[in-house]
Amino acid sequence: xxxAVATQPTPWFRASFKEWIFTTDHKxxxxxxxxxxxxxxxxxxxxxxAIRFELTAPGVQFLDPDLYxxxxxxxxxxxxxxxxxxxxxxxxxxxxxxxxxARDVAFPRLxxxxxxxxxxxxxxxxxTLIPSENIRMMWTGYPPFSLNDNAGxxxxxxxxxxxxxxxxxxxxxxxxxxVLRMRAKNVTLGNTNxxxxxxxxxxxxxxxxxxxxxxxxxxxxxxxxxGTQFFSASSGGDPVLYQHLFWFYSHPAVYVMILPAFxxxxxxxxxxxxxxxxGRVSMIWAIWGIAGLGFIVWAHHMFTSGMPDWxxxxxxxxxxxxxxxxxIKIFNWVATLHKGAIKLNTAMxxxxxxxxxxxxxxxxxxxxxxxxxxxxxHDSAFVVGHFHYVLGMAVTLxxxxxxxxxxxxxxxxxINEAIGKTSFWLIIVGSNLLxxxxxxxGLEGMPRRYVDYPEIQYWIDMQEIATVGGVLLMIGVIVTxxxxxxxxxxxxxxxxxxxxxxxxxxxxxxxxxxxxxxxxVEVDEDWTPYKY
Amino acid sequence: MxxxxxxxxxxxxxxxxxxxxxxxxxxxxxxxxxxxxQPTLGVILAGLTVAVLAIGVTGWARxxxxxxxxxxxGPIAVAAFIISEVIIFGTVFVTFWLYRITHFxxxxxxVPEGLDATFAIWLTLILWSSSFTIVLSERAFSRGDKNGxxxxxxxxxxxxxxxxxxxxxxxxxxxxxxxxxxxxxxxSSFYALTGVHTSHVLVGLGIHLVLLSVLANGMMTSDxxxxxxxxxxxxxxVDIMWLLVAANAYLIGGSA
Lengths: 532, 256
Ligand SMILES: [Cu+2]
Known about the structure:
Helix content of chain A: 55-70%
Radius of gyration of chain A: 23 Å
Strand content of chain B: under 5%
CATH topology of the largest domain in chain B: Four Helix Bundle (Hemerythrin (Met), subunit A)
Helix content of chain B: over 70%
Shape of chain B: globular
Distance between the termini of chain B: 60 Å
Strand content of chain A: under 5%
CATH class of the largest domain in chain B: Mainly Alpha
Mean pLDDT of chain A: 94
Bound molecules: copper (II) ion
Largest sheet of chain B: none
Largest sheet of chain A: none
Low-confidence stretches of chain A: 1-6
Order of helices and strands of chain A: HHHHHHHHHHHHHHHH
Number of strands of chain A: 0
CATH architecture of the largest domain in chain B: Up-down Bundle
CATH superfamily of the domain at 258-515 in chain A: Cytochrome c oxidase-like, subunit I domain
Oligomer: heterodimer
Radius of gyration of chain B: 21 Å
CATH architecture of the domain at 258-515 in chain A: Up-down Bundle
Number of domains of chain B: 2
Order of helices and strands of chain B: HHHHHHHH
Structural class of chain B: mainly alpha
Distance between the termini of chain A: 17 Å
CATH topology of the domain at 258-515 in chain A: Cytochrome C Oxidase, Chain A
C-alpha cells in the first residue's frame, strides 16, 4: 500500500496567496494557527523577558507598576491561550485527519471559521498594546479588581475570552465529529495513536470547561457595564463565585495544555526506541482519567479564598489522586525505553527533557495540593516556578519535540540535528536556571506579581540566577527558530525517516494536497501505529 | 465513501471569512458602545454586523447546497455543541442557587409583586407548541411536502417570536415596577436566567429564518435533511431548557 503513492505530486503547501487565505484544507489551517501562535509566543516571551529584567534587582528599574501589571497580564494570557493551547490547535489540525486516514475534518468551512474567531481574538489582543487599552487584571481577571478602572478595559478582556472560546467550541465540535465518524476502515478508538486520544481529550475538556469561563466573564461584563450585582460583595454578590467558575475551566485547562504534550512524548518515545508503547491501553485510560479527574480539583487554586473544610479536603484528595494516572504514564514511558533501540536525536531529546521538566513540576505540585503547605506558599514565587516547569517547559518542550518529530512530514525536509541539539541544551539548562531559583525564592517567602521587592540578599541572588537562565532560554528558543527556518532547505526526508507504522508516514513527505491517494483508506485488522 | 470527491471541489471558501468578519465587528461594536462609550457608532457597527453576518450566512448556505454533498454529520456536531450549552446554562443556575441559598432569610423581600408564575405557564405553552410545530414541519419536509414544511416552519417562527415579545413585555413591566438587574441578587440572576434563555431563542429564530429561505428558494430538498435535523435538535434543546429556567426563575425564585 505504501508503494502506491510513489510518484511525488505537488506538495500541499504550494498554493497561491488567495488559496492560503480562503483555504479549508486542514493542513493550511494548521499552519495559520501555528504561525499566529508562534508570533504571539514571541511577543509574550519578550514580555516575560522585560519582567525578568525588572525583577533582577530590587527597586523599580525601568517598568512603572501599571506597565508591569500589563506585561504580567499579557505574558500570562497570551502564553496560556495563544501558545500552550492554540499551538496544539495547529497539531490537531495537521495531524488528526492524517492519523485516522481521513481526507479532511468533518466540517472544513467551520474549521476555517474557527480560525477567524481566533484571528479576531488576536486583533483584540493587539489592541491592548495601545497604552490606554492596556489590560492589567491578570489573566485570571478576578473581581473586584477587574471591575476597577485601574485594571484597564474589562470589556476587552471579556471579549478576548469569548472570541477565543468561540474558536475553541467550533474546533471542538468539528474534531469530535471527525474522530467519531471519519476514521478509516479498521482504525478504531482502541488502536488509533495515543496522540489522537491526547488531542481529542484536550478538546473534550475544552468543550465542557470553556463555557463556565465564558459564563463567568459575561457576568463580569454585566457587573461592570449593566450594573448587575453578581460579584459585588457590598450588594450581596459573591466574588469567590467568579473564582469557582473560573477555575472550573482553568484548572482543566492545564490538561488541555499538557495532555497533547503527553501525546507527543508517547509518539516520539515509541518511534525513537522502535518499541511499541508500553501499556498502551493503560495509557488511553490514564489520558481520559486525567481529563475527567481534572474537573473535580479546581478549588486547590483557592485554598486561601475561603471555603468549607470538606471542600478543601475533598479537592486536596482528588488533586493528589491525579498523581496516579500521571504516574502510570511516566512509568510506561520509562518502560518503553527499556531495551529499546534508542535514537537520541533532537525530537527525542526534547521529549526526554519535557518528561524531566514535567516530573519536577509534578513533584512540586503534590505538596501544593495539600492545604497545610499551600497556604504558606500561596501567591509566592514558588507557585510561579512550579507552573512554569509544567505549563511553561513541559508543554513547550513537548510542542517543540512535536515540531521536530513531524517536521520531515510537514516540510519534506530534515532539520540540522546539530542546531536542534544546541537549542535543546540551551533551553534545558536555561529553563532550570530560570525556574528552580524562583521556587527557592518562593520558599523563602518571595511573593509573586509585585514589581518591587525588599533588599533581601537571598532573593536577589535567586533573581540574578533566574535572569541568566532566562537569557539562555531565550537564546535557545531563537536557535530552534533558526533550525526550523534553515531546515526548509535541508536534505530531503523521504516518506518515513523515523520508520514508524503510524498512518501519516505512509504519505509522501510533504503530503499531497488531498492526503491519501485513494479513499476509503484501509488498514489491516491488527494494525497499530506502534508496530516495528 | 465520497468524501474525497466532496472536499476536493472546495479547497477554498470565502464565506467563513465573511462570517468571521461579522464576529470581529460584533466585538468591536460592543467595545465601542460600552467601553469607548460611543453609543451611536456602536449601534451602527451592530447594524453592520448583522448585515455582514447575513451576507456570509447566505453565501455559505448557497455554497453548501449547490456544491457540497450531504455527509449527515451535522446532528453529531449539534449534540456536542449542546453539551457546552448545558454548561453555559449551568453557570447561571449555579449562580442563581448560590444566591437563593445564601440569601435565604431575606429572599422574600427581593421578589417583586408582578412576578407571576401563571404567566410563565403561558410562555411555556407557547414555546412548547413551537417544538410541536417544528416536528410537523420536519415530517412534511421529509415527505417532500414543501408547502406543509414551510407553513409549519412559519408557525414555529411566529410562536417563537410571540414568546420573545411577550417575555420582553414582561421584563418592561417588571422594570417599571422597580425590579431591575441592579435591585438585588435575585434581580441579577432572574434576568440572567431568562436573558440567557431568550438569547438562545433568538439564535434559534435566526436559524429558522435561514432554514425558511433555503426551503423557499428550493435549495434544500428532502434528500438533504442534515441542516434541518440539526436546527430542530437545537430548537428542542432550547425549549427543554425553558422548563428548567422557568421553574427556577418563577417558582423557586418567586417563592419567598
Ligand atoms: Cu489546578
